[in-house]
Write a structure and sequence with these properties.
There is one protein chain. With about 300 residues, the protein is mainly alpha-helical. The protein is built from 10 helices and 4 strands, in the order ααβαβββααααααα. A 4-stranded mixed beta sheet has the order 1-2-4-3, sandwiched between helices. α6 runs antiparallel to α7. The protein starts with 5 loop residues before the first helix and ends with a helix.
């Protein structure tokens, strides 16, 4: 994979952010229109009736999405810290880490991010934050203790590239919108499960249509999110190679990380995709199913290592 350059990648990711901001609401509004169309009780003037109901629904849908987005956007830092068990690492606790981070930041003209630690003996790391005031690199205790300086520097450079490329902002946008569809789908599933036979035929049909459309929206948003997650890892690997001029160090680090990436505190898949390697247990499928690759948060680490060795 040819590396396009950091400035080009920043521009590309900013463009993707705009596309995502447009695409997800388009999917939401499209499904809302389809819902009101399908629930029309009279076949005559069905489209006109659907358009009228859709126009009346748009302000309420927009308010709901905006409220959800705002809350999730400003609470993501706290949510991620709780989901990963990360806590601030002071300079006095580990000068080695701060020296590596500062040297890379000075060399690349970046502001110094905060540094957090995850008290886990496994090897993993991730970047978070949406602006200079909360940019953070989180490293597990295992990755700090078990990697050589050049390997750890390469991992830190990988995470700094995520920050510089605005990958974190891009992922948060995708995670928020997936969360909207997930919430709606779960709420409708619970409604069906606990309503029993108490619903009328018409109400049951409406709920079933809503559930099917919400599931479609959830499926599409997952595909978008995972595609973004996989691509950003390739770009961050390339950025690390460019920043350190030592791609083999990152390849060596990834080999060690792949042997033990499991972070016990991480239970959520949306948080797992932020790590350099998925920190959750790998699900082994009994039958090879190539389409399953579109639901993976990370590209195969063997492929990433092979690409780094070609630099």
């Amino acid at each position: 994979m040819k590396y396009a350059g950091l400035n080009t990648q920043i521009w590309n990711n900013n463009l993707k952010s705009v596309v995502l901001l447009i695409l997800f609401p388009v999917v939401i509004l499209g499904l809302v229109w389809l819902f009101v169309f399908l629930v029309q009780s009279t076949p005559e003037n069905r489209i006109a009736g659907a358009n009228s109901m859709f126009i009346r629904s748009v302000p309420w849908v927009a308010i709901g999405v905006l409220a959800w987005f705002t809350i999730a956007w400003f609470s993501h830092t706290t949510m991620i810290a709780r989901a990963t068990g990360s806590a601030p690492l002071s300079r006095k606790e580990n000068k080695r880490i701060y020296n590596l981070v500062e040297n890379l930041c000075i060399g690349s003209g970046m502001p110094m991010p905060k540094v957090n630690i995850i008290e886990d003996s496994s090897l993993n790391a991730f970047a978070s934050g949406i602006n200079a005031s909360n940019f953070t690199i989180s490293l597990s205790r295992g990755i700090i203790d078990k990697l050589e300086d050049d390997e750890l520097e390469a991992v830190i450079a990988h995470e700094l590239t995520h920050i510089r490329n605005r990958d974190v902002r891009l992922l948060i946008i995708s995670i928020i919108f997936v969360g909207i569809f997930a919430f709606i789908t779960e709420a409708l599933v619970r409604s069906v499960r606990f309503s029993g036979g108490g619903r009328g035929k018409k109400d049951g049909r409406v709920v079933l249509i809503a559930l099917l459309l919400a599931a479609v929206g959830y499926f599409l948003s997952l595909i978008f999110r995972f595609a973004i997650s996989r691509q950003r890892e390739y770009m961050a690997d390339a950025g690390s190679a460019s920043m350190t001029r030592n791609p083999l160090a990152l390849a060596s680090a990834l080999e060690k990380i792949s042997a033990d990436p499991l972070i016990e505190a991480v239970k959520r898949n949306d948080v797992a995709q932020m790590f350099i390697d998925n920190p959750q247990p790998r699900v082994e499928r009994p039958v090879s199913f190539s389409i399953s690759s579109i639901f993976k948060t990370h590209p195969p680490i063997e492929k990433r290592i092979a690409i780094l060795r070609q630099f």
